[in-house]
């Protein structure tokens, strides 16, 4: 009976998986006026421009405090055994730090992290409690992101799961209804966290092209994929709104590369279809809600503190980079006027690196889904019980069992199909016994 039931569940899982993959294509991004296919088309140009931009000296130099202790619980800060030292961080020495960063001095910050114009702009100031993501503590150092790429380090287990649980459970709005039934501002915040979780998983999948992990952790859940698209649109919206401020910033590091940086920025803003992507989600629908900016900021600050509990130095750096990037996007979108906006070097660096992370994920989702859909024999690569290696990697991204919305239909459908198969076997058995009795007579 167990074999029959397992077989039934495998068949039903195949049906559900196939439907999920087909449904994503041509669908609208939730809470946005944009079809996935349109985002894919424009993203081809976005990823090409940003892949060049983030390699420049200015945009690959990030200031971060990755040694800050966890404020919520004791952590052993141990990377996975299989990481092979992959958690190690290589810091910039003085000669590698661009002079423009070394000369920046702290400047006072006004509430909400906006730099006071009279004091100067674009500094590396720590600011006050109004910053969206506090990456620059007293022990902050400069990191070359190219020398410390985002990749699978082996960090996993209960420690990683605990961090993800805290991100979800301690930073929600207390609404226990389904995401579709929640108000827009709650849905937006949840989609931002979900997408942060999703691109973390995508970075693990990308490192080694772990297509099976992508399939089981993301592809079977279209909402997780579309949340990545949603945040991608939010970030494009923010970057577009801040175009005047960003284009006027001094990004010179004193090399011939300075001209290229300016060209890449101009190319980005000239991308065909960028304005349409930027207008796909109207942030004005929620920015006017009284007290929402403070609430969003407080929760985002708390998330950045939870990340300090991550037991992997390199993982922490890229998590803080992404959180600062999204936080900077929110800061821009909550601002009243782009002309009244001041941004620090670290914020702009994080914003564009984060857009690139999402752009990479969007491109991979497009390519990998196309590949999976085009597989001629999907059953050969699908199992009810995932491979142990996939389970181990899955622990690194913090995703637990499938949500009830998927598990319950699969279980009910499996039991129904199992019942049909069992009934058929019993009927066949009775027919066999009947033939045997007649033959003996």
UniProtKB/TrEMBL annotation:
Subcellular location(s) per record: Endoplasmic reticulum membrane
Keyword Nucleotidyltransferase part of the UniProt annotation: no
UniProt record similarity statement: Belongs to the EROs family.
Co-factor(s): FAD
Listed transmembrane segments: 406-425
Mode of membrane association: Peripheral membrane protein
Species whose genome carries this gene: Carpediemonas membranifera
GO (cellular component) term, any one: endoplasmic reticulum membrane
Keywords, ordered alphabetically: Disulfide bond, Electron transport, Endoplasmic reticulum, FAD, Flavoprotein, Glycoprotein, Membrane, Oxidoreductase, Redox-active center, Signal, Transmembrane, Transmembrane helix, Transport
Signal peptide: 1-26
GO biological process: protein folding in endoplasmic reticulum
GO MF, one annotated term: thiol oxidase activity
Pfam families (UniProt xref): ERO1 (PF04137)
Subunit architecture: May function both as a monomer and a homodimer.
Name of the protein: Endoplasmic reticulum oxidoreductin 1
């Amino acid at each position: 009976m167990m074999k029959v039931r397992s077989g039934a569940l495998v068949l039903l899982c195949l049906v559900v998986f196939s439907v999920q993959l087909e449904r994503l294509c041509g669908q609208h991004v939730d809470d946005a006026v944009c079809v996935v296919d349109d985002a894919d088309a424009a993203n081809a140009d976005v990823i090409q421009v940003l892949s060049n931009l983030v390699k420049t000296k200015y945009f690959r130099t990030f200031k971060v405090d990755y040694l800050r202790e966890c404020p919520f619980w004791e952590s052993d800060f141990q990377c996975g055994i299989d990481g092979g030292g992959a958690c190690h961080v290589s810091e910039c020495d003085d000669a590698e730090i661009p002079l423009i960063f070394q000369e920046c001095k702290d400047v006072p910050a006004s509430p909400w992290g906006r730099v006071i114009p009279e004091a100067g702009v674009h500094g590396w100031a720590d600011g006050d409690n109004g910053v969206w993501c506090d990456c620059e503590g007293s022990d902050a150092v400069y990191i070359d992101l190219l020398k410390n790429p985002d990749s699978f380090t082996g960090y996993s287990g209960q420690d990683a799961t605990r961090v993800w649980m805290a991100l979800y459970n301690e930073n929600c709005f207390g609404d226990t209804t389904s995401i579709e039934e929640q108000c827009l501002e709650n849905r937006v915040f949840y989609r931002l966290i979900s997408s942060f979780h999703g691109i973390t998983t995508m970075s693990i999948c990308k490192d080694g092209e772990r297509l099976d992990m992508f399939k089981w952790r993301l592809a079977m859940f279209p909402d997780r994929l579309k949340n990545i698209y949603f945040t991608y649109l939010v970030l494009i919206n923010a970057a577009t709104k801040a175009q005047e401020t960003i284009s006027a910033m001094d990004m010179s590091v004193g090399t011939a590369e300075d001209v290229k940086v300016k060209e890449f920025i101009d190319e980005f803003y000239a991308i065909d279809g960028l304005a349409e992507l930027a207008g796909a989600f109207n942030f004005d629908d929620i920015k006017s809600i009284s007290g929402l900016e403070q609430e969003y900021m407080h929760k985002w600050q708390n998330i950045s503190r939870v990340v300090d509990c991550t037991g992997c130095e390199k993982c922490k750096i890229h998590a803080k980079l992404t959180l600062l990037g999204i936080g900077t996007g929110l800061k821009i979108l909550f601002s009243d006027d782009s002309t009244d906006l001041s941004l620090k070097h670290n914020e702009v660096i994080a914003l564009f690196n984060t857009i690139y992370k999402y752009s990479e994920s969007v491109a991979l989702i497009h390519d990998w889904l196309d590949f999976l859909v085009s597989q001629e024999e999907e059953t050969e690569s699908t199992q009810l019980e995932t491979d142990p290696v996939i389970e181990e990697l899955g622990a690194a991204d913090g995703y637990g069992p499938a949500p009830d919305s998927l598990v319950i239909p699969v279980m009910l459908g499996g039991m129904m199909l199992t019942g049909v198969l069992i009934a058929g076997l019993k009927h066949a058995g009775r027919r066999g016994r009947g033939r045997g009795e007649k033959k003996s007579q």
